[in-house]
Structures are given as C-alpha cells and as structure tokens.
C-alpha cells in the first residue's frame, strides 16, 4: 500500500494537471484509510482535497468519472460528513445512469439518516426509568484500564471537545 501511494504521489508531481493521477492518488489514500484502521489516518484531508482538485479544476474528463465521486462519497460517509456523501452519490448516479450502486447507496444513506433522526426524536424509543439507566454514568469497573486511578474520567457530553 505504501509503495502504491508513493508511486501515485510521484505521478501527480510529474503532471499535476493529470486527473487520472489524482484519481489514483485518491484511491490509494482511501485504501490506506480503510486498511489502516481509519482513526487518525493523516492522508484523509489530502485524499478529500485531491478528489476535490480533480472534480473542480484539474481535469474535466476525470471529473466525469462516476467512480471518483462514489469513492469520495464513501470516505465522506465514514467520516460522517453526510451532506457531502449524499452529493457525491447523486453526482455519481447522474454521471452513470445505468449504474445502480450509487442510487442504492444514496437510498440506504437516506434511510439511515431518517432512522437516526427518528431515534433522536424518540430518545432511542426508551422510556422513563430505562432511559435514565442508560443515560447515567458508566460504572468505572466497566471502563477497564480507562477507569483506573490515572485514567480518563467520565465527562458529560456537553463537556467533550475534539482531540485524543
């Protein structure tokens, strides 16, 4: 994977206006993102910006590649950037009307987001005492090594901030 990424980066350096090279570079980053455990993968911003470069200004022919938009939408969906994912799936479907995959995935994502909104509105379909039990603090023994003397302590959701 690392060798393919290095080769793709070299191809982009050779000709930064070649949309196919940007496409391959984006796919290399997506592959590493999913193969490497996803969390904290440093190439994610570069992957998204690389695909955006292709689709916005580098190579109009490459921007018409529906697979490019589907791959970007997949990454955005895993990053929970749902608006961008929906737009990418729609674009892929528009570019390849006979290809069912983008439309199917668009419908699945719409369904997932609808379910998520309904669960948020109904507070997970839990009532009274049961909801309070679920929403309460996690007992420290259940946190394992995180609940030890020097480990992190439970925090209210309102107190959480981005970071490690």
Topology of helices and strands:
Elements: H1 2-14, H2 19-35, H3 44-58, H4 60-63, H5 66-78, H6 82-95, H7 100-121, H8 128-135
InterPro entries: TPR-like_helical_dom_sf
Organism: Melospiza melodia (Song sparrow)
Biased composition (Low complexity): 134-144
Give me a quick take on this structure.
The protein is mainly α.
Keywords for this structure?
164 residues, mainly alpha, Serine Threonine Protein Phosphatase 5, Tetratricopeptide repeat, flat, TTC5 protein, TPR-like_helical_dom_sf
Outline the structure in words.
The protein is mainly alpha-helical. It has a single domain (1-128), classed as Tetratricopeptide repeat domain (Serine Threonine Protein Phosphatase 5, Tetratricopeptide repeat). The protein has 8 helices and no strands. The protein has helices at 2-14, 19-35, 44-58, 60-63, 66-78, 82-95, 100-121, 128-135. α1 (2-14) runs antiparallel to α2, α5 runs antiparallel to α6 and α6 (82-95) runs antiparallel to α7 (100-121). The longest helix has 22 residues, at 100-121. The two termini are 26 Å apart. The relative contact order is 0.07.
């Amino acid at each position: 994977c690392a060798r393919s990424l290095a080769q793709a980066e070299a191809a982009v350096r050779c000709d930064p206006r070649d949309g196919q090279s940007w496409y391959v570079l984006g796919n290399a980053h997506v592959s590493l993102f999913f193969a490497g455990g996803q969390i904290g993968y440093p190439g994610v911003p570069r992957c998204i910006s690389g695909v955006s470069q292709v689709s916005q200004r580098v190579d109009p022919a490459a921007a018409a590649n529906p697979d490019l938009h589907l791959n970007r939408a997949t990454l955005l969906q895993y990053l929970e950037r749902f608006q961008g994912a929906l737009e990418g799936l729609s674009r892929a479907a528009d570019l390849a009307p006979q290809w069912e995959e983008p439309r199917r995935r668009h419908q699945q994502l719409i369904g997932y987001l609808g379910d998520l909104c309904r669960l948020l509105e109904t507070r997970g379909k839990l009532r009274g005492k049961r909801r309070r039990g679920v929403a309460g603090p996690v007992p420290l023994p259940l946190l394992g090594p995180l609940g030890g003397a020097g480990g992190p302590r439970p925090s209210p959701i309102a107190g959480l901030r981005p970071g490690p």
